[in-house]
Amino acid sequence: MCQSVPMSNNARGAICVLGTGLIGGSLLRAAVASGYEAFGFNRSQSGVDAAAADGFDVSSDLVAVLRRAATTDALIVIAVPMPAVDAMLTKIAELAPDCDITDVVSIKGPILEAVRAHGLSARFVGGHPMAGTSQSGWAATDSELFDGAVWAVGVDPDTNAASWERVVRLAIDCGSVVVPVVAEEHDQAVARISHLPHVLAEVLASSGATGGALALGLAAGSFRDGTRVAGTAPDLVRAICEPNATALADVLDETIDALIAARTTLRENGDLGAVVETGYAGRTAFENRVQREITDVTPGKPGWLDDLRRAGQAGGVIRSLDN
Amino acid sequence: MCQSVPMSNNARGAICVLGTGLIGGSLLRAAVASGYEAFGFNRSQSGVDAAAADGFDVSSDLVAVLRRAATTDALIVIAVPMPAVDAMLTKIAELAPDCDITDVVSIKGPILEAVRAHGLSARFVGGHPMAGTSQSGWAATDSELFDGAVWAVGVDPDTNAASWERVVRLAIDCGSVVVPVVAEEHDQAVARISHLPHVLAEVLASSGATGGALALGLAAGSFRDGTRVAGTAPDLVRAICEPNATALADVLDETIDALIAARTTLRENGDLGAVVETGYAGRTAFENRVQREITDVTPGKPGWLDDLRRAGQAGGVIRSLDN
């Protein structure tokens, strides 16, 4: 079966966003700004009203929204927190089982499992735009949130080429570059660069507060930056980090070992040990990373998923599907 | 003995800055911008040349600079990294033993010990402006670096009132507010809000790099902010953190315990435990902290040092000596 389906830039199709909080709402704005027909669902009426007041087509009637998705052959974007994903999939399976589906949730393995459990994997392609702020809700949405961001898009085995191409075009149209990645490797990577920063910010903020008014009064840039994401609502932090428990616990093991080594040599010899140099090297590697462009992407070509997976592992990004 | 010495705003006196890197050089710029006669010493000729090219009076001849400090009754500001402090004190004791002295080094206990060992404590008042960037050297200096910053100033027992007033006026003239604090409490506080952020940034940057090009390619705002200070030169990180080994090791003990608790409950129950809420509360307390103004400051009045110490512990700041 050849899955390669040419798709012109103009035939964008409709977008149906389920959940119009910070990420979903910003995606709705960005899609509309790029010329998509885009509409959405939000659970809370206050969120619906806020979106409507800004001129966006959002409803709290999930059944109606999904029927419209089915009718318009929309790409459905699941943009609710992980704990609410299963209920969404149940309704999609019932009302819009033939639609393309993606998501913007911060972990990919558990999403993929849930999608498979609901029999929806044939047209599903996972996604994760690496963008956000510590704010949440419609009021924080921004059509430019994804401008210049990295957007992880799944290249898991058996991915449908046409669905994949549609998701990649949406990410690019929102201003992002695409990193192709399989679910497990995504989750291990984000444990390091997204979930560990959350946990470290929490322990740092706790430590500062333990020092009382004097410590918080002396705190400046390094504390401010190091604790920024601890300003995220606790429920949202849990929804982001806890579904990735296994990978995050493994990374915490490493981190605890590194801190114990630093603490021990600091107490015994008055020096912090190797972590100062490895940390500096890591930050330098981050600052100097290069987004090498992946070209000649041909969805559906034999071996395309493996090729893209390897290119993503090496730091490659897709900027366009048209070269 | 009454130590209260009235000093008009206009009688600023001279400032002698030893070490014109990021902090010392910025202080030289800020002092000159505020109308002080200010001059400095720098060890490297390239640093001297860079300062001279910008019109500043900096020399690599330490003996000549300290003789000038003695002649002009300058306030000497020690702005070299901790490992170089002892050599500076030796020269000050020899060439300018009657000058007022302060410093801008990131820890206060070891400085105070060294000052006492050199017999220079009678006119010494420790200082620590809570400002900086991950850059270093004259090229990074900025006359506005201290604008709106917090500047810790020592209120240790037996502090000379006139010397103290001179140091506080300098900090205020540079645009900062002053937090009065004794050396030990300063060092415990900065272990939490300055040195721990450095160590956590290093371990986070290391963990990201361990994830390779894929992890660094997916890294976004939370990783960028959480690792910012890991971009500081390793020698400077060591010079900042390692002299505070005992307090930092104690804080690392707490931090390791908190991470072990989070890791354990994450592995066993899939949840991060209490750290999410305590971290959020800590960050919220930081964002909502209030700098209550300490007024009616009368250096030399009976009990003034204890009064100021308590006011600083409660989050108070000095904005002016003239009310």
UniProtKB/TrEMBL annotation, chains A, B:
Any one GO biological process: tyrosine biosynthetic process
Keyword terms of this UniProt record: Oxidoreductase
**Source taxon at top rank:** Bacteria
**Domain Prephenate/arogenate dehydrogenase as annotated: residue spans:** 13-297
What is an example of a Pfam family matching this protein? PDH_N
Which InterPro entries does the protein's record reference? 6-PGluconate_DH-like_C_sf, NAD(P)-bd_dom_sf, PDH_C, PDH_N, Preph/Arog_dehydrog, Prephen_DH
Molecular functions (GO terms): NAD+ binding; prephenate dehydrogenase (NAD+) activity; prephenate dehydrogenase (NADP+) activity
Would you identify the family this protein belongs to, as annotated? Belongs to the prephenate/arogenate dehydrogenase family.
PANTHER family annotated for this entry?
Answer: PREPHENATE DEHYDROGENASE, PREPHENATE DEHYDROGENASE [NADP(+)]
Protein name, entry field? Prephenate dehydrogenase
